[in-house]
Amino acid sequence: MATAAVTFPRAAKQALATVTQEGNGVWLLSMHNLPDNRLLPEFIKQALLPALDHVELAWHRAAQAGNKNGALVLTGERDKGKFFSNGLQLEVLADYPTFFRDYYYKLLSRVMTFPLHTIAAVNGHFFAGGLCLALACDWRICRPDRTWGSMNEVHFGAPIPAGMAAVLSARLPEPVLRKVLLTGHRYTAQEALKEGIVDEVVEATGSEGTIAYALQKAATLSPLAATGVLRAMKQTIYAPVIAQLAKNEPLSVGGPQAENEALFKALVAAEVSAKL
Q1: Where does residue 79 rank: exposed (0-12), middle (13-18), buried (19+ CB within 10 A)?
Q2: How many C-beta atoms surround the C-beta of residue 70 within 10 A?
Q3: Which of these, 20, 16, 17, 19, lies nearest to 3 by C-alpha position?
Q4: Most buried by CB count within 10 Å: which residue of 55, 82, 108, 148?
């Protein structure tokens, strides 16, 4: 039986994230940044990172009391079950010059090195930064319906930041990585399963059925936390990714277009010079 939800931010009237303990050493972290769980700076800082701290502290306390099992399920909004996460919102980031290093990359790094097995219960669409967040989890379980996944930066002119590319490179083989980044292909659940973007597609439809299946899966993995070595193993496996995520990257929307314009002018000048 699940415990009462702990809400984040703790003093807020409306929760942006909730954590429940589902029994058998399993915690469920649900995102509620409606309508589509955009990974905004304050959502990350005030809700998601504190929620992860809460789960880890609860696990340590349970371990001291004798129950060392632990696993975490991360899922999207559950009112409509339409979005796992719609990614970043680039137009608000001008006020956060260290957004990548101090907010989004800190979240990705925290998830990738979490001391418990982490499962993304992809209960709705997951785009760009939301897809990358799901890939930061150890496992991805996806509903079969109403779920599209895409790294769509190529369609709106934003180059992929190096930290996000590092996460994608750690998870996806090169032919899939090339397709994901250079075409912005919008994957169905079955396509994502075929190309290894997700690990399982549940048979039952619906957001809650996906979450319930992910919780069952988490319960089978939770005993693997007992030795306390998962974080150390992840830090070793993902060392290059974690190092990249520790770097700050400036927001670059429009930069490549300006560079293309400069290169165009240089090529025109070279052509004119060659004809002289």
Answers
A1: exposed
A2: 29
A3: 20
A4: 108
Output phi, psi for 68, to 5 deg.
Answer: -95, 0
CA-CA-CA-CA torsion for 11, 83, 166, 202, nearest 10 degrees? 120
Q: Which helix (H) or strand (E) segment is 98 a member of? A: none
> Cβ of 110: how many Cβ atoms within 10 Å?
18
Contact by Cβ (8 Å): 56, 73: no
Which runs of E-coded beta strand occur in the chain?
Answer: 6-8, 17-23, 26-31, 71-75, 83-85, 117-122, 125-127, 139-142, 149-150, 200-201
Question: What is the predicted pLDDT for the residue at 273?
Answer: 73
Q: Is the dihedral of CA 90, 52, 163, 177 positive or negative?
A: negative
DSSP state of 94: G
Mean pLDDT in the chain? 92
Fold of 6-251: 2-enoyl-CoA Hydratase; Chain A, domain 1 (3.90.226)
Cβ(222)–Cβ(25) below 8 Å: yes
Beta strand 117-122 pairing with 139-142 = parallel
Of all residues in the chain, the percent with pLDDT exceeding 90 is 78
Residue-wise pLDDT tens digits, 19-39: 999 988 999 999 999 999 999
pTM: 0.91
CA within 13 Å, CB half, 117 = 24
Distance of CA 239 to the CA centre of its chain: 18
Residues 255, 139: contact at Cβ < 8 Å?
A: no
Tens digits of residue pLDDT in 37-59 = 999 999 999 999 999 999 999 99
